[in-house]
Structures are given as C-alpha cells and as structure tokens.
Amino acid sequence: MRFKKIDPEQVIEFLSREYGVPEKELANLSFWSSGKRVWASSDVILPKGVNIQGIGIVIGKMKEGRIIPSNALFKNFTITKKKIELRSEKEVRTFMSGGTIKIDNGPRGIVCASYNGENIGKGLSNGKEVLSQVPKEFRAKGIHIP
Amino acid sequence: MVTQWIIPKDFVSKYSKILGDEVREFIKYCKIPTRPAVRINTLKKRVEEVLREIDFMSPEKIPFCDYAFRINYDKPGNTLSHFLGHYYVQDPASLVPVILLAPKPGEKVLDMTAAPGGKTTHIAQLMENRGTVVANDVRLERVKMLRSNLERMGVLNTIVTMNDAMSLGYKKSFDKVLLDAPCSSEGEVRKRWNALSGWSQRRVEQFSRVQKRMIKRAVAAAKPGGTIVYSTCTLSPEENEEVIQYALENLPVKIVRQRIKGLKHRPGLEGYDCRDCLRIWPQDNDTIGFFACKMVKTA
C-alpha cells in the first residue's frame, strides 16, 4: 500500500468539529492516507523498501471531501458529540452482535455508542434507531458485561 | 469428554534423553491445559481499574510481571473488557521476550514475526505509544489479525509491514529487535492438544534452518550496541541453543545474562555455549514451554 502524509490541521478541525474529539488528543499525531483510508499514528519513522500495510490505526475513510469515521476512531479517542448512551446490558449485547437499538430523538448519521462512559463502537442513526456498524471481526454474541 | 493428547513416541524419547526421569513430569504437564492469563493494557486503563472490571475472574498476580494476572475464568476472550482492549489474553511465558527486550519510549523497535500481535502490543505498551515499532509478518491473513489487535489495544506507534522475515533488508536500523521465530510449537501442546500432531525430528530441523536465516537478518537490522531477543515456544535444542550457537559463531553478538525475579527458568542445555539463555519448562511455572535469549550486537 502507498501511504501519503496528510495535513493534520484539516483532520483535527474536522474531528473536533463533528465529533468533539479534543484537539490536544490529536495534536501530536500524524495522519496518513492510503487509497480512501485515513490513518492516525504517533510520530513514527517510516521504514524504506518494505511493503507497508498499516500505520497506526484507521480512523476513517474519505468520501466526497469528508471523513467517514471508523469504529477504531470511536474506540480509541474521546468523543463528545454525536454520541448515544446504551441503557442496558441487553442493548450492549444487541449492539455488539450487530443489531439495532431504538433511541428517542437522537443524533443522525454516524454516531458513537457508549455504555457506562466507555465508547463501544460505531453506529448509523436515523434519529429513532441506531444500526450497529461494529466490524464483523469485533462482533460477539452473549458477551460478559461486569 | 476425554481429550486424547497427541504425544509422539519419538518426542517422548527425545526428551527422555534431555530430562532423564523428569520426563514423566514434563509429559504429565504437556497433557494439562494451561490456566488462562491476561496482560492488562495500560495504554487504555490503569491496572487497578481493569482489576475491578475483571474481579469476577478472581485474578492472581503473576510473580514476575506487575500487570499480568492468572484468571479463573474460561472465556476471557468474550467479555466487554476484552473487546474494549483493556487486556490481552496471553500465557505468562510469552511475556518473557518483551520483558527481556525492555523497550523504552522513543526507541525504534523491530518485531520480525509479529502476528497475531501479543508481543507487539506489549512492546507498544512499554513504549507508552511513543517511538516506532515496525511489526512485520509474512501472510495477509496474519497481517489482518495483527492490525485488528493493534486497533483493539489502541496502539498508535506501530507500522505494520508484510514481508518475509528471511529477506528483510534492514541494516543497522533498530535499537531493539525481537525475533519470536516460527517454530515447531512443542511448548504450545498445553494450549492445543493436537499441537504435536505433525511433529517430527525432520520438521524440527527444517525450522532450525529457517531460524538461522532469520537470526542473521535480525542481527543485521540491529544498530551496533542494539539488543536482539530471540525466542520460541518450543523446547527443541535444534531450534533454540543451536540457533544461538550459530549466531555466536557467525554473527557480531554476545549473550547478555538475564534473570527474571519470580520466574523459574533453567540455563541453556549443556553441550552448547549458551548457558545464559532462559529455558522455561512447563512443569516449572505451570506455563507453556518457552525459550528466550537476549543478545547485544557488538559491531
């Protein structure tokens, strides 16, 4: 894969405006693009002459000049906007297994689902329902919630 | 259901020569499944916070690692804490290579055979997500598994590469290099009852040849004065002491003597010049079988 360093200002501005990610959390990070994917890493030194498959974590995909956030963005950064709180263990289990949660007048579009202050993952909301967009590799049925 | 453990006769006879009467104890332990253990991911949460989350697993501290615990729970991979990356399920013996490597924030570290990422995420944890880790593996499906674990554990200082470790061309580039070499996995029999199903002395010797080619690349990749840790989850001398002996005779390295307080380990086998290696038998700490050696590059 080919990686290109991208201007951090635009990414930081977008993520803090749209999802309320604190700027100080993003300030020391580098941002990279490969195809449509946007990656965030700490200040790493790239090796030469090798086949690079990833730098840090994927924080989103570029679409029509916007970043569509990834599940990893929500799980690894503080999110203060477009957030919905799951209300019970049952809802967490439904969400973690890829199901749909009912909400009352919630935010629309890509949202971050959280439970007891922990970001659980990404969902797609129409304001009344949130469809889990937790990637298949992270889905699970019947998880134990302490 | 009674599991039929596959322990080939030639395997028993090989280890009788090494262990003498103790082979009975060794084979007995090979047939006892390991108790699960977890390493708490301090990149995400403090140890005491995660301990509260996993209190229901009755965690017991591992004597040689402040952030790793044995647990009394058989599905640690199916909890919310696991999905949130608060811990990594890992046998205590496999903590040893990274403890020996002792990576520090800001360093440049190479993990030559990184998937599925237990040791890479441990390295990033000790580096506090600062500096650079190059985590390499050879096959795409393994690289995907590695990336997925890095994402789960919140690792930001790692570059994932996909290359054959035998042909990595790094020269004097890294402060520290970990070669957790592909091996015959004898030590894993406690985790997988059929781990020895394809075992043969010929296969052990094939691995040994591959490991010698890899250690050459590992030493080349380290800076002069840099650290190289070689480890395997096997107990065959051909894949351990013989590989280290090869490095000592052909490459600019010397062994650094290491002791880990709280871990019972034995020296490298007699007949080789590497008594300062760490040989971890399953019966000594109730872990999988393991081997590790720390070296420094002299030129």
What does this structure look like?
The complex is a heterodimer of chains A (146) and B (299). By secondary structure, chain A is α+β, with helices and mostly antiparallel strands. Chain A has 2 domains: 4-76, no CATH class; 83-138, Archaeosine Trna-guanine Transglycosylase, Chain: A, domain 4 (Roll), CATH 2.30.130. Helices cover 21% and strands 38% of the residues of chain A. Chain A has 4 helices and 11 strands, in the order βααβββββαβαββββ. Chain A has helices at residues 8-19, 23-26, 71-76, 89-96, and strands at 4-6, 30-34, 37-41, 52-55, 57-63, 66-69, 83-85, 100-102, 108-115, 118-126, 129-132. In chain A, the strands form 2 sheets. Chain A has a 5-stranded antiparallel beta sheet with strand order 1-2-3-5-6. In chain A, strands 7-9-10-11-8 form a 5-stranded mixed beta sheet. The longest helix of chain A is centred in the first third of the chain and has 12 residues, at 8-19. The N and C termini of chain A lie far apart (40 Å). Chain B is α/β, with parallel strands linked by helices. In chain B, α1 (9-19) crosses α2 (23-30) and α8 (201-221) runs parallel beside α9 (241-250). Chain B folds into 2 domains: 35-90, Sun protein, domain 3 (Alpha-Beta Plaits, 2-Layer Sandwich); 92-297, Vaccinia Virus protein VP39 (Rossmann fold), CATH 3.40.50. Chain B has helices at residues 9-19, 23-30, 47-53, 80-83, 96-101, 118-126, 140-153, 201-221, 241-250, 282-285; strands spanning 37-40, 60-62, 65-70, 87-89, 108-111, 132-137, 158-162, 174-180, 222-232, 253-255, 278-280, 290-297. Chain B is 31% helix and 21% strand. Chain B is globular. The relative contact order of chain B is 0.15. Chain B starts with 8 loop residues before the first helix and ends with a strand. Chain B contains 10 helices and 12 strands. In chain B, β8, α8 (201-221) and β9 form a beta-alpha-beta unit. In chain B, strands 5, 6, 7, 8, 9, 10, 11 and 12 form an 8-stranded mixed beta sheet that branches. Classes of the chains: A alpha+beta (146), B alpha/beta (299). Chain A binds chain B through residues 29, 40-47, 49-58, 72, 75-76, 92, 96, 115, 118, 120, 137-138, 140, 142-146, and chain B through 53-56, 75, 78-81, 83-85, 108, 129-132, 134, 136, 143, 147-148, 150-152, 154-163, 168-170, 173.
